[in-house]
Amino acid sequence: MISTISLHSTTPFISGDRRIRVHTLCLPIVTDFSQVFNHLDIKATVSLLGKMAVERAMNGAELNDCREALINAVVDAFRSYNKSVGERPQCLLAPIHGQLKFFPLYVLGMLKNVSGPA
């Protein structure tokens, strides 16, 4: 998705209006949706989730809620993988290729770590 934003303003002596215009264009980047999961940067994903969990905990959320959010992220990722690849919807299967198969291990390691949201 490509987004551009432009700011238009009138002369401050007349009315001083400012208007923001946003233009968004969605372009397909892969032909097979499973390529998105095969080329996932798992370290960046886990790092972002960890930072989000810590920020959530520092803003007053319960630690159990932060843990649940991390676990739900893994479940949601596997569910969307199974849906896009066309596997059986009643069970969650880990992918064979790519880095997504290590996602639960990274999250469990983060949950077991003393410095993480534990």
Number of β-strand runs: 2
Strand content: 5-15%
| Overall pLDDT confidence | 83
The portion of residues assigned to helices is 40-55%
Strand order of the largest sheet: 1-2
Q: Any idea what the shape is?
A: flat
Q: Can you summarize the main beta sheet? A: 2 strands, antiparallel
Number of helices in the DSSP assignment:
4
Question: Nearest-angstrom radius of gyration?
Answer: 20 Å
> What is the N-to-C order of secondary-structure elements (H for helix, E for strand)?
EEHHHH
Structural class: alpha+beta
Which consecutive residue ranges, at least 5 long each, have pLDDT under 50? none
Query: Distance between the terminal alpha carbons, to the nearest Å?
Result: 35 Å
Question: Care to give the gist of this entry?
Answer:
The chain has 4 helices and 2 strands, in the order ββαααα. It is an alpha+beta fold and 118 residues long. The two termini are 35 Å apart.
Provide structural commentary.
There is one protein chain. The chain is of the alpha+beta class. The chain has a domain of 79 residues. 47% of the residues lie in helices and 14% in strands. Strands 1-2 form a two-stranded antiparallel ribbon. Helix 2 runs antiparallel to helix 3.
